[in-house]
Design brief:
The chain has three helices and no strands. By secondary structure, it is mainly α. The protein has a domain of 41 residues. It starts with 7 loop residues before the first helix and ends with a helix.
Length: 70
């Protein structure tokens, strides 16, 4: 079975869904103020944005450059 590239968009949306679900579960289990949950959620979004920028700016491997030159 041939390995395929990671679908970054699906990964970002999956991680976003997990962060939202985890923060909701945490808020139900522990008495916290909504301001704290907002900061945690905002920090998660900023982290995912930085990962997206990194993946867009990183240099591609030799496989991608040789395919583009053909």
């Amino acid at each position: 079975m041939k390995r395929h590239d990671i679908d970054v968009i699906s990964l970002v949306f999956g991680v976003t869904l997990l962060v939202v679900a985890a923060s909701w579960l945490f808020a139900k289990m522990v008495e916290v103020s909504w301001l704290s949950i907002g900061w945690i959620f905002a920090g998660g979004l900023v982290l995912m944005g930085l990962l997206g920028v990194y993946s867009a700016l990183r240099p591609r491997g030799a496989d991608h450059s040789s395919a583009e030159s053909k």
